[in-house]
C-alpha cells in the first residue's frame, strides 16, 4: 500500500482507453459501487456496449442517468443496460446466463468484479449452502464464466477478467473443505476472503488450460491495488480512521479500475495468454495494479491443488466436469441451478 502510488507513477489516471465499437459488449458484475462503477462508466464512455450485472437495478439506473447527464457534452447516448444478478444465489446466476445466452449475441468481455470482504462478522453460509466469501468471490463468478462460454465464443477473441486481490498470497484452499466448516482449520474472515481469491486464481488457471486456443477466450486475473471503496466498510472504526489518515497511499476507484480496464482492452493480452499456454505455464495471466504481468502466489502454482479446486468447484456449482469441452463442441449442458435443472 505504501509503495503502490510510487510504483504506478508511469500510469495515467484515468487510464486512456482506445475508442471502442458500439458492438463491443462488456459485462461487468457489481458495478453500482467502487471499482466496478468506474470500470462500467469508463468502458461506456469509450464507446462500448456495457451490461451492468447488479443486485440493485434501481441504483444502477440512477447511475446511468447521472453518467448520461455528465456525458451530455457528447452527442452520443451512452450504450448501457442493466440486468439483475445476485451472486449469493446460484439460481440467479444461472438464470442470468440463460437470459443472456438466449439473445444469441456475442459477448466480448466478462469482468467478474463483484466481491465481498465481511470483516468482523460471524461465518455466514448462503442459502445454497456455501461460505459466503467463497460463493460471491469464487463459485458464482465461476458458474457465470462457464455458462456464458457460448456467448464468449460468439464474441471471440474475447476475455474473462477476474478482479482478484494480492491478499490471495496469504490464502489457502482445501478442496475438501471449501467452506472452512469441517473444523480442520479455524475460520476467520481473512481466511474466508483470501481463500476465495486463491480459489478464483486456481480455477481461472485450469479454465485457461481447458479452453482450446480455437475458442479464442483469454482468462486473466487482475489486482486493483488497495482502493478506497466501501469494501472495508466492516473494518473497526479505529482501523477506518487510521486508513483515512493516509489517503495519499490508497488508490481512488478510478485508479483501482486501471488494471481491469487494461486487461479488458489491451491489444497484447490475447497473445500473452496464448504464450503462457504454449509454455505450459501453470497459472493464467495475472496483471498487477501497475498494469504489468506479475506472478500470482506460490500456492497458485500448485497444479495438483488447482485441478482439485476445479473438480470441487464444478461439483459445487452443479456442472459436470466435462462441461467446458461440451460447450466448446456446441452441446447443451445441464446445470443443477436455473430453469434447466437436472
Ligand atoms: N477495495 C480494495 O482495496 C480491493 C483490493 C483488492 C481487491 N478488491 C476487489 O475488487 C472488487 C470490487 O471491490 P470494491 O473495492 O469496489 O468493493 P465495493 O465498493 O464494496 O463494491 C463491490 C461491488 O460488488 C457488489 N456485490 C457484492 N455482493 C454482491 C452480490 N451478492 N451480488 C451481486 N453483486 C454484489 C456490490 O453491490 P452493491 O453496490 O449492491 O453493494 C458492489 O457493487 C472485489 O472483487 C474485491 O475483492 C478490492
TrEMBL record:
Keywords: Oxidoreductase
Alphabetized SUPFAM superfamilies for the sequence: NAD(P)-binding Rossmann-fold domains
GO-annotated molecular function: oxidoreductase activity
InterPro entries: NAD(P)-bd_dom_sf (IPR036291), SDR_fam (IPR002347)
Gene3D superfamilies recorded: NAD(P)-binding Rossmann-like Domain
Highest taxon of source: Eukaryota
Pfam families named in the record: adh_short (PF00106)
Annotated family: Belongs to the short-chain dehydrogenases/reductases (SDR) family.
Name of the protein: Uncharacterized protein
Provenance organism: Daucus carota subsp. sativus (Carrot)
Taxonomic path: Eukaryota, Viridiplantae, Streptophyta, Embryophyta, Tracheophyta
Amino acid at each position: 500500500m505504501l509503495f503502490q502510488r510510487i510504483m504506478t507513477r508511469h500510469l495515467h489516471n484515468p487510464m486512456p482507453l482506445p475508442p471502442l465499437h458500439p458492438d463491443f459488449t462488456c459485462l461487468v458484475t457489481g458495478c453500482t459501487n467502487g471499482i466496478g462503477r468506474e470500470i462500467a462508466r469508463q468502458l461506456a464512455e469509450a464507446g462500448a456496449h456495457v451490461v451492468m450485472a447488479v443486485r440493485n437495478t434501481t441504483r444502477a439506473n440512477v447511475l446511468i442517468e447521472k453518467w448520461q447527464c455528465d456525458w451530455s457534452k457528447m452527442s452520443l447516448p451512452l450504450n448501457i443496460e442493466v440486468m439483475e444478478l445476485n451472486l449469493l444465489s446460484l439460481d440467479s446466476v444461472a438464470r442470468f446466463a440463460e437470459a443472456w445466452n438466449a439473445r444469441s449475441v456475442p459477448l466480448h468481455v466478462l469482468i467478474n468484479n463483484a466481491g465481498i470482504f465481511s470483516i468482523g462478522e460471524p461465518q455466514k453460509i448462503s442459502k445454497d449452502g456455501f461460505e459466503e466469501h467463497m460463493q460471491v468471490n469464487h463459485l458464482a463468478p465461476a458458474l457465470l464464466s462457464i455458462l456464458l462460454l457460448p456467448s464468449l465464443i460468439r464474441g471471440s477473441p474475447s476475455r474473462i477478467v477476474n478482479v482478484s486481490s494480492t491478499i490471495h498470497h496469504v490464502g489457502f484452499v482445501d478442496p475438501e473443505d471449501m467452506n472452512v466448516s469441517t473444523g480442520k482449520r479455524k475460520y476467520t474472515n481473512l481466511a474466508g476472503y483470501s481463500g476465495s481469491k486463491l480459489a478464483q486464481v486456481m480455477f481461472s488457471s485450469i479454465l485457461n488450460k481447458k479452453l482450446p486456443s480455437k475458442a479464442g477466450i483469454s482468462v486473466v486475473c487482475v489486482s486493483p491495488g488497495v482502493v478506497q471503496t466501501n469494501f472495508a466498510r466492516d473494518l473497526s472504526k479505529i482501523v477506518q480512521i487510521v486508513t483515512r489518515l493516509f489517503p495519499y497511499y490508497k488508490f481512488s476507484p478510478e485508479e483501482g479500475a486501471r488494471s481491469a480496464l487494461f486487461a479488458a482492452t489491451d491489444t497484447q493480452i490475447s497473445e500473452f495468454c496464448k504464450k503462457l499456454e504454449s509454455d505450459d505455464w501453470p497459472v493464467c495471466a495475472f496483471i498487477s495494479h501497475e498494469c504489468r504481468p506479475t506472478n500470482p502466489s506460490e500456492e497458485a502454482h500448485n497444479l495438483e491443488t488447482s485441478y482439485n479446486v476445479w473438480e470441487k468447484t464444478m461439483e459445487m456449482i452443479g456442472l459436470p466436469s466435462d462441461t467446458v469441452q461440451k460447450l466448446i463442441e456446441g452441446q447443451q449442458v445441464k446445470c443443477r441451478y436455473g430453469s434447466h435443472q437436472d
